[in-house]
Design brief:
By secondary structure, this protein is of the alpha/beta class. It has helices at residues 8-16, 53-57, 96-102, 120-123, 143-150, 159-162, 217-220, 234-245, and strands spanning 27-31, 36-48, 66-78, 81-85, 110-114, 127-128, 131-132, 138-142, 169-172, 183-186, 195-200, 206-211, 250-253, 261-263, 266-267. Helices cover 18% and strands 27% of the residues. The chain is globular and about 50 Å long. The structure holds zinc ion.
C-alpha cells in the first residue's frame, strides 16, 4: 500500500462512527476528513444468475439463484455543498426523496448532480410529480454519453427525466475537474460514455464513484471478465471493470450491496462475507502468474 492511503481497518472504523444509526433506513454515512459521503439506498435489488450470459456460456455457475445488489445514490457533503452522484429510479419505484429527507437534506439544497450514465435506474429519481425534483441543481453528464443517448432509440424514453433540466445541464469533457473537485474518467462499455468520478480526499486517498462498473460484486470482483447482459459493449466493459477495480481508493458502486463501498478489491462492509479480494482469484482465460 502506498503511503498516505487509508487502510481497510481505518475505513471499517469509520463505518462504526457513522453519523446515522448503522445502516438505519438504508442510509449509511462515511465521514471522511474533508467531506462526507452518504450512501442512500434507493431500492433493494438482486441480480439473477441468468443475467450473466458469459458466465453461463462458460459453464461456470457460482449460484443457481441470484446475487445481492442494490440501487445506491451517493450524497457528497463538502465545503457547505450537497451534491449527488446519480439519482436512482423513478419515484414510483425509488425512495430518493424520502432518503434525503431522513438525511436532513432538502431537494433545493442539492447544487450539483453527477450522472454516471443514462439509464432509468440512474436518472429516474430526478423527477417528482412530472417536474424537476431538484430546483437548483446543475446536471453534469459526459458529452459523449449525451451524444450516444441522443442516437439511441432504445433510451429515448429517458427524455422526460432530463428535459426539465435542459437549461442547466452541463455536458462535460473527461478528465476536466468538476465542482466539488470531482474528476470524471471514461470507463465505457456498459454504455458508450459511462463515467466514473474520482474525488481526491484529504487523507491522500480518493473516493471513486464507479457507477455500473459491476452489477454483482460477489461474481465480478473475483471474475471481472463476466458481464451482465446490460453491458452494451462487453469487451470494453471488461477492460473498464478491471482498470477500475485496480484503482487505489474507496470505490462506491451504484449496485454494490448496501452500503455500496469497497476498497481497491476488498469490499468494505462489516459483513465478513464481502471481505474477499478479487486479486486472489485467477481471471478466466488469462494467464495466472
Ligand atoms: Zn444501473
Amino acid at each position: 500500500m502506498k503511503t498516505g492511503t487509508i487502510g481497510t481497518a481505518a475505513l471499517l472504523a469509520m463505518l462504526t462512527v457513522s453519523a446515522f444509526a448503522e445502516n438505519a433506513d438504508g442510509i449509511q454515512s462515511f465521514p471522511l476528513r474533508d467531506c462526507e459521503v452518504v450512501c442512500l439506498q434507493d431500492t433493494s435489488a438482486s441480480m439473477p444468475q441468468g443475467l450473466f450470459a458469459d458466465a453461463e456460456a462458460s459453464g461456470f455457475r457460482q449460484t443457481d439463484d441470484s446475487y445481492e445488489a442494490s440501487v445506491n445514490v451517493f450524497l457528497i457533503r463538502k465545503e457547505g455543498k450537497a451534491m449527488l452522484v446519480d439519482a436512482g429510479n423513478d419515484p414510483s419505484r425509488g425512495s430518493l426523496r424520502e432518503k434525503l429527507q431522513k438525511a436532513g437534506i432538502r431537494p433545493a439544497d442539492i447544487s450539483n448532480i453527477f450522472i454516471t450514465h443514462l439509464h432509468p435506474d440512474h436518472v429516474g429519481g430526478l423527477l417528482w410529480e412530472g417536474k424537476a425534483l431538484f430546483p437548483n441543481a446543475t446536471l453534469h453528464i459526459a458529452r459523449e454519453e449525451l451524444e450516444a443517448w441522443k442516437k439511441d432509440n432504445g433510451r429515448s424514453g429517458l427524455a422526460k427525466y432530463l428535459s426539465p433540466y435542459s437549461q442547466r445541464t452541463h455536458a462535460f469533457e473527461y478528465e476536466k475537474a468538476l465542482p466539488g473537485g470531482l474528476i470524471p474518467l471514461k470507463r465505457g462499455g456498459h454504455t458508450p460514455g459511462h463515467t466514473i468520478f474520482r474525488l481526491p480526499l484529504a487523507e491522500g486517498n480518493e473516493a471513486i464513484f464507479v457507477g455500473d462498473i459491476a452489477h454483482a460484486v460477489a461474481l465480478q470482483f473475483p471474475y471481472p471478465t463476466f458481464c451482465a447482459r446490460f453491458d452494451k459493449a462487453p469487451q470494453e466493459a471488461v477492460a473498464s471493470r478491471i482498470q477500475t477495480l485496480q484503482m487505489d481508493g474507496i470505490l462506491f458502486g451504484a449496485h454494490f450491496p448496501f452500503p455500496g463501498a469497497a476498497q481497491g478489491g476488498a469490499v468494505l462492509s462489516s459483513a465478513p462475507r464481502w471481505s474477499f479480494d478479487y486479486r486472489r482469484y485467477p481471471v478466466p482465460n488469462q494467464k495466472n502468474d
